[in-house]
Structure formats: structure tokens, C-alpha cells
UniProtKB/TrEMBL annotation:
SMART domains: TBC. This is Rab-GAP TBC domain-containing protein. Residues 85-277 form the Rab-GAP TBC domain. It comes from the Eukaryota. It comes from Palpitomonas bilix. Pfam families: RabGAP-TBC. The lineage of its organism: Eukaryota, Eukaryota incertae sedis. GO terms for molecular function: GTPase activator activity; small GTPase binding.
């Protein structure tokens, strides 16, 4: 039986109807996967005068340095300029290069489509966000500058990422990171950036926590750093008042400070995160506590302390000042984090993560403030 032939409106030639249908379906999928959902103008319109000046200043610094290609040619210059900030108009280009997504997009252009088809079927059916994998994170769509229909894009991204990386069981930060990416990148580019971040985490455990144990150890190390880098007096005050640092710090770290500090400042954190890893979360958390130590020490109750921490963080308008304070904190090396982690778990520096987990018997209930209290009382 001969297939139905139809005249192609573009070429004028007769082609099988099935071919045109396949092309139409491919075009529909391409339109879906390459859509933009960011409210970039609205985001920039929300900037204060200081933020506008800051963005213009870093823009001039990048131009003076010779542009993106010249900056990436020098890792030292790249680190320095990223710490000063990435101009908003360059974030798409820089994010793709920092993650390596610019390379994977060329090498595996169909990777996202394949992951989506494996997860949702060839029709790319819409999945309710409530039913999507959330990597143990908190979904708060209203905190981001993403169009309402971007919720569908986010649901597809989460399903595709989980399909590709089912072993990534506990990475709550991915939810907000995905929405930050959606402001600057199209959906396909977002997937490649998220995938690149997870792949890097497999080689660098200080880049992203991808399981619950690592997440808990990350938080416990922060408590030690507060005592070392901020104030031992503040650590003891938290203990005396029954203030659990995890109640506010876990929200900071799990959401990359989204909803806790102004949105522009969150972008400054993401800029550095993509180049240096999750150490920037420690830096910002320590800088915030250092800036309000005096106020916190004057408060006699845990509830008042929690409220003051949240209020202080939310009103920290100047992202450039916050980041300068963060980078002024010295001796935050990964080897030191390793030392603190080994000390807390009672392991040797040479022990593997698996050995530390086994020796410490770490779980959410058994690895917490009892260790912190013991250390704080020394």
C-alpha cells in the first residue's frame, strides 16, 4: 500500500505525509525544549539604585578585562572577577561555560530530549509539580522571576534530571538552582547546566551534596566554623539559649539563601558557587552571623534569636557588601573542612566518606546537636 504523499510547502516537493508529521512533532518538541521562561526585565526593574550601579560597575570591569573569552583564559582573573560579580547580560554565557554545558550542548544536543522521553514519553506530557521528584527540597515557585508557565518547564527538568541521575537522592538546592537558571537560560540549557553540576559533584564532594549523610555533615561542619570564625561566645550563647543553628542554616543552604536574602544577592552566590562550589554557602552564612553577632548576644531566648537572624538577613540590601564580607573570611580551605569533619566523626583524615559514615553511624536523629554541645562546652 502506497503511503499518502503531500506537497511540502517549503520545497514544493511531494513527500510522505508521515515524514511531515514527524517533522512537525520534532518542531513542536524543539519549541518546548528551547523555550525561555525568565522574567528578566521584571528582575532588572526591581533593582535598587545601588544594585544598578553595582551591575554597571562589574560590567565595565569585564569589558576592561577583554570580555568573556579573555577572562576565561586566566583562571586567576576569572575567580577574581566572578567574586566581584557577573554582569546580568553575561550570566547566560558565563553559566554555560562555568558548568561546561556549552560543550555538552554541542556534543550531546539531544540529551535532554532523550532523558525527557525516557521519563515522560514521546508526547512530553505535563506532570504536576506536586508529583515531581524534589530531591528532598522545598518548592517555592513564587520566590523566583519565572513566568507562570515556567512551572511546566520546571516539572520537566526535575523529571529529566531524576531520570538521568536516580542516585542523586538528596540535593534540595537543585530546586532553587533550576529556577535561577530558568531566569537566564532556555529549558534545554538549564538541563545541561544541572546535569553538569551533578556530574562534577561525583568528582568533587565539596561542590554539591547529593545524599542525606553529606548534607548533615555539611551542616555540622558549619557549626564548628561558627565557633572558629565568628565567635566562640556566640556558639555558647546558642547552646545556653537552646538555639538550634540548623533551623535557620539548613534553610539557607538547602535553598541557596533564596527567600532569606534579596534576590540580587542570591545571584552573586550562584555566580561564585558555579566556580568554587558550596564553600560559598559557608562564607555567606558566616558573614551574616558575624554582622549581627552583637544583636544576637543581647537576646535571651531562642525564638528572639531566630527572628533576629531571619530579619537581619532579609534586610541585607547591599549584596556587594555581603559578598565582600564573605570573602574577607580567611582560611576556609577544603582540607580544613576535611579536618573538622574527620574530628567530628571520630575518624582519621585518611578515612573515606564511607568509613566516616560507618564509624559515626550518621543519621538525622543520631548525628546532631549532642556533638555540637560537647564541643561548645570545651
Amino acid at each position: 500500500m502506497e503511503s499518502l504523499m503531500i506537497k511540502d510547502a517549503t520545497t514544493g516537493k511531494l513527500v510522505p505525509a508521515s515524514t511531515l508529521l514527524e517533522q512537525a512533532e520534532e518542531g513542536r518538541r524543539a519549541a518546548v525544549l528551547n523555550g525561555y521562561f525568565g522574567l528578566k526585565r521584571e528582575f532588572e526593574a526591581s533593582w535598587s539604585e545601588e544594585t544598578q550601579k553595582s551591575n554597571e560597575n562589574v560590567k565595565q570591569q569585564w569589558e576592561k578585562a577583554g570580555g568573556v573569552d579573555a577572562v576565561f583564559a586566566s583562571p586567576k582573573k576569572l575567580k577574581k572577577l566572578i567574586r566581584k560579580g557577573i554582569p546580568n547580560n553575561l550570566r547566560r554565557q558565563v553559566y554555560l561555560r562555568l558548568t561546561g554545558a556549552d560543550v555538552t550542548l554541542k556534543e550531546r544536543p539531544k540529551a535532554y530530549e532523550k532523558a525527557l522521553i525516557d521519563a515522560l514519553g514521546s508526547e512530553l506530557r505535563t506532570v504536576d509539580l506536586d508529583k515531581c521528584p524534589k530531591f528532598a527540597g522545598v518548592l517555592s515557585f513564587g520566590d523566583h522571576y519565572v513566568r507562570a508557565d515556567g512551572q511546566e518547564a520546571l516539572s520537566r527538568l526535575l523529571c529529566a534530571v531524576f531520570q538521568r541521575f536516580p542516585e542523586c537522592e538528596y540535593a534540595p538546592i537543585l530546586l532553587d538552582m533550576a529556577q535561577l537558571f530558568l531566569l537566564h537560560l532556555n529549558e534545554n540549557e538549564c538541563y545541561h547546566c544541572l546535569a553538569a553540576v551533578i556530574v562534577r559533584a561525583k568528582e568533587d564532594r565539596f561542590f554539591l551534596t547529593t545524599n542525606k549523610t553529606r548534607n548533615i555533615l555539611f551542616m555540622e561542619t558549619f557549626k564548628d566554623l561558627v565557633r572558629e570564625k565568628v565567635s566562640s561566645k556566640l556558639s555558647k550563647h546558642f547552646l545556653t539559649t537552646g538555639t538550634n543553628m540548623s533551623s535557620f542554616a539548613s534553610k539557607w543552604f538547602d535553598r541557596m539563601f533564596v527567600g532569606s536574602i534579596p534576590y540580587w544577592s542570591v545571584h552573586r552566590i550562584l555566580d561564585t558557587y558555579l566556580n568554587e562550589g558550596n564553600k560559598i554557602l559557608y562564607r555567606v552564612g558566616l558573614a551574616l552571623l558575624k554582622s549581627c553577632t552583637k544583636q544576637l548576644l543581647s537576646l535571651p531566648h531562642a525564638d528572639a534569636i531566630q527572628e533576629e537572624v531571619q530579619a537581619f538577613a532579609s534586610t541585607f540590601k547591599r549584596g556587594d557588601i555581603l559578598m565582600d564580607d564573605s570573602f574577607s573570611i580567611r582560611n576556609l580551605s577544603r582540607s580544613h573542612f576535611d579536618y573538622l569533619e574527620a574530628k567530628r566523626t571520630g575518624c582519621d583524615m585518611s578515612d573515606s566518606l564511607q568509613d566516616r559514615v560507618r564509624k559515626a553511624a550518621v543519621d538525622e536523629d543520631d548525628f546532631g546537636d549532642h556533638e555540637y554541645k560537647k564541643d561548645a562546652s570545651m
